[in-house]
Design brief:
Blueprint: H1 2-24, H2 31-42, H3 46-59, H4 64-74, H5 76-125, H6 129-178, H7 189-206, E1 210-217, H8 220-227, H9 229-246, E2 252-257, E3 260-266, H10 270-285, E4 288-290, E5 297-300, E6 303-309, H11 316-332, E7 338-340, H12 344-354
Parallel strand pairs: 6-7
Antiparallel strand pairs: 1-3, 1-6, 2-3, 4-5
Helix pairs in contact: 1-2, 5-6, 8-9, 9-10, 11-12
Length: about 350
Amino acid sequence: MAKVLDEHERTMAFAEIALGQIRSLRQNAIPRNYEIWYVYATGYNAQLNKIINETLTRSGKLTESDLEQIYETYLSHIKATDRIDKVGARVIGEIDDVVKLLGEALGVSATYYESLTGAGQELSIAQNTDQVRSVIEILVKSTREMRDTNMALEERLNLSKNEISSLQQSLEAIRAESLTDPLTGLGNRKYFDRMIDAAVQEAFANGEPLSLLLLDIDHFKSFNDSYGHLTGDQVLRLVGLSLRQTIKGQDITARYGGEEFAVVLPNTGLRQALTVADHIRRAIMAKELKKKSTGEILGRVTISVGVSQLKLGDDTDALIERADACLYAAKRTGRNRVICEIDPEYVAEARSQVA
């Protein structure tokens, strides 16, 4: 009893710390934020605590984007792993049941074989009709038992096949969920990291071009500050929807982090990539942002885009760094524009960084 009370007091202390942090930083008391601070209070996730402490030291607060990124990076994958483990355990349990059933069926088959062998010997020495009838009755009984066993085995195997197929679909759904940003429906950062590495390797292997777009929502902070985080989320969803409507086929879209997005364009040169980037920019700018609760028109969303193309000797990091520098040049020179690595704005930016 004392141990139960100790555990109760310990967990309540963690809960109070979590709520205290939410209160002092004036954050929304939603399950995601509570979970982050509860885990922080336990100290079990050293990396989570480290990034929180560093962010607070640097800026004195955690923005919604910070909290979302922390949750996505340090907590959401743990839940997915737990769910995968549970589904995996069910698959193993199902296989164990089938193996056990097959063992029982093999035992019945062995018994039936012995019955056939014994019947053959008895028939060879039978002297009259009654002895033959007796042997036949035993064979009929054994055959029925064997038939019933086979029918039960077939039914059970069909059930197991369906169950394992369902569990496989669950695993695929969990895997897809773990790679999807829940707010925008695009791939998340983990998905982007995995896919761009594969795309770069494939481009080099096939001798094909590859381009990268990095997009950033202009003045995103002002949407949050002026209209609240729910409107900020609406802006992110609007950009995500525009990307899903614009980017098709083999091209890869992801939420890179916070208000940044990424588009990987396999088998696409720089000139084509610039056309795609400007098409995205115009598509987003064409949509009006409306406040759902009042119908108030809040204006239009614009984005800045940086574009880079894979070069010989590049690695993934170099490709991303150039796109990021182009994005910075686009933001610095007025926003709502597309800059690529051959534009004068990027060249000037690159030279200033070297100097």
